[in-house]
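Many introductory courses stop at the sequence. We go one step further.
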Amino acid sequence: MIWRTPGAQLQLATSQRGHHMQDSPAPGCIRFGPFELDARSGELRNGDTRQLLADQPLAILKALIERPGELVGRDELRQRLLA
């Protein structure tokens, strides 16, 4: 089984003198499509909906997000889960 990451643009939060643009994700967050992931807390947001992800789904989502538009194999995901 191979997972293909969404080709959506990822937007990483960065700080410039403590100011953030309104459209920018919060610090430490990654935005993709309508979603925003706080990788530190494991919280996935879609508008007003918030979901705390368990460790394994969070690890898989991070692996896919790190390689947008690329194929991610089952073995690589398995290794990631066992790390």
